[in-house]
Design a protein that fits this description.
Layout (H helix, E strand, L loop, with lengths): L1 H9 L5 H11 L4 E2 L5 E4 H18 L2 E3 L1 H9 L6 E9 L2 E8 L5 E8 L2
Antiparallel strand pairs: 1-4, 2-4, 3-6, 4-5, 5-6
Length: 114
């Protein structure tokens, strides 16, 4: 799945969040947490990310792509299925979000803990 995600992300290299997540995933220290995706609806995920976004800001943790992905989610039907894959590395967590068929990357979030 890692290679498929990298291929889809490579089509989005004009955005800073895509470039950041590609560099993170390509890093030798990064591991895919599970081959099985997490599943959400767009409405539930948007509500969760709004809470997490505030928590990240209040904690002084750096994130890349969170606001952009929230903006994307706001344009989708609340019941649209979203899949995610989580990558972990030293001090960082990256989450890539795809449509329900895992055919298109909708966004990604990179969280960087100091």
């Amino acid at each position: 799945m890692r290679e498929s995600i990298l291929l889809q992300l490579s089509l989005l290299t004009g955005s800073s969040w895509a470039n950041a997540i590609i560099a993170f995933i390509e890093s030798n220290e990064t591991q895919l947490v599970s081959d099985q995706p997490g599943n959400y609806t767009a409405g539930d995920l948007l509500a969760e990310l709004k809470i997490r976004s505030k928590s990240v800001r209040d904690s002084g943790i750096e994130s890349v792509g969170m606001i952009e992905f929230q903006n994307t989610l706001a344009t989708l039907s609340e019941d649209q299925l979203i899949q995610n894959y989580i990558f972990k590395g030293e001090g960082k967590t990256g989450i890539v979000y795809l449509d329900g068929k895992a055919e298109n990357v909708l966004g990604a979030v990179l969280v960087i803990r100091s």
